[in-house]
Amino acid sequence: MDGSLGRPNTSLFNERRAFVRDAILEGAPEAKNSVFARAFAECFVDRVAEALEDGAWTQFLTWVDATYRGHAESIPARALFTVAPKAVSDALDTIGTPADVLDTFRSVTQEIAVIAGGILNSDGAADIGILEEIDVALASVVGELRALDPLTADHAQAVSAWCGRVAERMGLTKPEATKVTRGGLVHDFGKTTIPREILTAARSLRDEEWDLMRQHVLAGERAISDTPSLRQFCSIVRSHHERFDGLGYPDGLESHRIPITVRIVSVADSFNAMIAHRPYRPAMNPAHALAELKRCKGSQFDPGVVDAMIDVVTAGRS
Ligand SMILES: [Fe+2]
Fold it and tell me: Which of 84, 198, 214, 283 is the most buried (most CB within 10 A)?
């Protein structure tokens, strides 16, 4: 879908951003006063504006998938997820958007409906009070990552989406799947402690810089342990660079001593890192990235998780 659009009048949409955000919030009165709702509406509209500008709707849908899955159990969030695409559609209609752009957004809306359908039809929306606290904390984590480096934040959101799909494929319980989806968002929070010039260096890192980079798992664990609603993710943050063969860090945990949530994040993290552009190398073809995962089955990665990841990626292409 990328790059297939005619040029919409993005300045008109930009002028209406505040109006569209308000329309989203007004459409979900039970949610409109929460910090999460305001952050969600702002982010949704900003990302539509970016996609209108550059045609990168696939990235927009990746963000939608991660966000919707990450907040699947929050009743206020569910209301927002339903009204947001319609509010944008209505706005695009009223500003004289070209027909090809409207058609594209209609197909994007249909894809959002598929994502939302899978989530909204699941039962058991849970306690709002506790989940709201997590929503706010997670929104803040992603905001901090984005302020540090947009690529790191995009990576976290994409990893979260992959984690949700792999967890579902492996038949994890709903609470475990939710935990691993959210864990994908926070796993690299420790990178907020790494100097930006190291994090975004367009060159190979020196040994002492790698040593510092490896510290992000412990720094991240320390940082999130201060927030009660995020403490449940400490093992994911601390252990996502452990390896199935015990040669990872920081503890050299082996095999099934690494929790399944962590083993899933580890595979999703590595796969998404390979297929993403980095300042020091181009993106790898997904088929090559899957071959690399296969090569590392049983050494770096849990074989069962790799199989599930391959199924998820392959199904997404067919
Ligand atoms: Fe990491």
Answer: 84
Per residue in 251-278, pLDDT (tens digit) is: 999 999 999 999 999 999 999 999 988 7
10 Cα to the center of ligand 1, angstroms: 36
CA-CA distance, 286 to 289, in Å (whole number)?
A: 5
Q: Considering only CA atoms, which of 226, 227, 251 is closest in space to residue 134?
A: 227
Tell me the two tokens of residue 118: 């899978």
Structure tokens at 172: 């994890």
Sequence-distant (6+) residues with CB within 8 A of 307 are none
How far apart are the CA of 70 and the centre of ligand 1, in A?
19
E strand or H helix at 266, and its extent?
Answer: helix 260-275
Residue 6 has which token pair? 């005619």
Q: From ligand 1's centre to the CA of 292, what distance in Å?
A: 18
Report residue 262 as tokens: 């962590």
Q: Tell me, in angstroms, the distance from the centre of ligand 1 to residue 240's CA.
A: 6
Q: How far is the CA of 308 from the centre of ligand 1 (A)?
A: 21
Instruction: Compute the distance from residue 54 Cα to the ligand 1 centre, in Å.
Output: 29
CA of 275 to the centre of ligand 1 (A): 16
With the CA atoms of 174, 179, 180 and 185 taken in that order, what torsion angle do they form, in degrees rounded to the nearest 10?
A: 140
- How far is ligand 1, taken at its centre, from the CA of residue 138, in Å? 17
Domains in the chain, start-ordered, CATH in brackets?
1-125 (1.10.490), 126-318 (1.10.3210.10)
Distance 75 CA to ligand 1 centre (A): 31
Give the CA-trace dihedral at 241, 245, 247, 250, to 10 degrees: 40
Lowest mean pLDDT among 126-140, 145-159, 193-207: 126-140
Which H/E stretch holds residue 61?
helix 57-70
